[in-house]
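tool_call: predict_structure(chain=1)
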Amino acid sequence: MQPTPPPAGPDPHYGFAGCYRHPDRLTGVRCVRCDRPICPECQRPASVGFQCPDDVRAGQATVRRGRTVVGATVSNRLPLVSYLLIGLNVLIYLITALSPGGTLIDNTGGKLFGDWQLVPVLVGYNHEYLRLVTAAFLHYGPLHIALNMFALFVIGPPLERILGWWRFLAVYLLAALGGSVAILVFGDPRQPVVGASGAIFGLFAAALVLSRLVGFDTRSLVITIGINFIFTFSVPGISKLGHIGGFLIGGLATLALLGWTMRRRPYTDQLRNVQLSGLAALLVLLVAATVWRTDELHSQLVVPTSQHSSTVWTGLGRTTSV
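tool_result:
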């Protein structure tokens, strides 16, 4: 676009033109790319001068957005999944605490708590597989949920920004399931267990793997994880298997997101396929271990005593937190 030619006589608006989006607004500023006149409302700051909204959008469309080491788009959006998981855990705790039989201090007496806690003997005998997942959203008392949600609040948001929402959620759920399956396979079949610590230990493992990959100083993280494991093995009433299982599966899930290597590589559709295949393989492994163990438990729990009767293990211990 050519500048407006000077008028024959004196003109107080010489050099000004109507904005290309708002013709009734005179302006002396033009877009540095297309030279169209732009009013203050349409001016977008550039490295030199101003650009019009159309050229800004066109420029953004041609710029490739950065990606993290696992292929998540770099952004400053809120870590909604972390906050939703915290909110969901707190909501379920309040439901169990305020339901008949429960209190804010002892929330274990309600029906929902009994139906959702992980009891391997019930998973094996009644095939109640949902307990492997629902138990990760139950907590035994206010101190238990406070510690777990504080840990999730600290480690969850930064990990979610690196992994992206769906990868973060996959690691969290697989780690939670990994902790439950470890309890099912190796634990006391009659011991009830609840808690999200298996998932949180999986996030610890994910943070450790990613930190080592990018070369961060991991001493403080290693010390934190070490203290948590010392706490796990020294304090009674804490499920060691749940923490170990969640930590191992969380680390393996993160390696799957890295293409099963500890090397940097550019994000491609092939890497995405490797990520999905690796996560699916871990899920299949956990499901296979669950099916094998429940079949074994069922054969152990039901022992024929006569042609028309059988005996079943009964009696549950005190709930263990994880």
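agent: The chain has eleven helices and eight strands. Proceeding to next step.
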